[in-house]
Amino acid sequence: MVLRDAGFQGVMGWASGYMVFLLHKQHQHVLYLQTSKLLYRTPPEMKAAQRVLLLMLCFLFFYWTDCFMTLHVTFSLEKHFIEVSALEFVDLGYAILSPFVLIHRDGHLTKCWPAQ
C-alpha cells in the first residue's frame, strides 16, 4: 500500500513539475512581448506555476500528516477524543484549505470586495 501511494505521489510530482516546465517555457516564449511597463509585474505563467507548487506542497503536507497521525492513533493503546478529532480535521484539511489558498493568492478578488 505504501509503495502504491509513493508511486502515485511520484506521478503527481512529475505532472506538477511538467506543468511548471510548460508554464516556464510559455513565459520564455512570450517574454519578448512584454513592455518596460510590465516588467515589474509578476507574469501570469509564474503566478500559475507558484499556485501549482503551493497546492502540491499543501497536499503532501496534509497527506503525510494524515499518514503519521493514523499510524499513531492505530497503534496507541488508548484512543483520545482530541486525537481522533484532529485526525478527522487533517483528513479534510486539504479539501477545506486549498480553495482559500487559491482565493488568497488571487488579486482580482480583493478588488471585488470593498474594504471597510
UniProtKB/TrEMBL annotation:
Record has rRNA-binding as a keyword: no
Subcellular location: Cell membrane
Molecular function in Gene Ontology: pheromone receptor activity
Membrane topology listed for this record: Multi-pass membrane protein
Main localisation: membrane
A GO BP annotation: response to pheromone
Keywords, alphabetical: Cell membrane, G-protein coupled receptor, Membrane, Pheromone response, Receptor, Transducer, Transmembrane, Transmembrane helix
Gene Ontology cellular-component terms listed: plasma membrane
Transmembrane segments annotated in the record for this chain: 52-75, 81-103
Stated family: Belongs to the G-protein coupled receptor 1 family.
PANTHER family: VOMERONASAL TYPE-1 RECEPTOR
Name this protein carries in UniProt: Vomeronasal type-1 receptor
Organism the protein comes from: Sciurus carolinensis (Eastern gray squirrel)
